[in-house]
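Write out this protein's structure.
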Amino acid sequence: MLVKPLLIPDIFGYRVVEVGVPAEHLTTLDHEMELPTPNYRPDREWDGQKFVCSRLDDAAVWEPWRVPGFETRDTGVEDGTKGVAAVRIVRPITAEEQTASVTSHDSDILFTFVLSGSCTLHGEGQDSQTLSEGDAYTLPPGHKTCLADPSADLSLLEVSLPGRFNTTVHPNEKLPI
């Protein structure tokens, strides 16, 4: 499913993509709180979860992603939520020609947002979609897809619930292009 989410423009050099699950929640504003707060409390929990701040400059560790040909960096959300959710940044390992792998997953919710660059998403029983910055999609459990033709500057934001889930690579399958 291709989704065009509300993209909030860069605010002070930050891009904000808000994903709320469940999508019904009360948002309040504390008019008395001064930001930034002078009290640095990184271990503070709110309903069992911690605030997480992930910065690109701090992203030294890239590891193989669940899909061959790509790598990922963890943002710390999985630890902060005690496994309830995960947020990862994904990029192609190389801009060289690579074979697009067909995969499926068993995550309850799997949402992907294109931060930069472009690629093509092929889905089982669906037309191929060319994706570029600002596009987003969700993949239902068990649905076979493959990402192809990633640009060298492709960067994806992947949100999953739960934080850990299984991905199956289907090495002998090809999806219609």
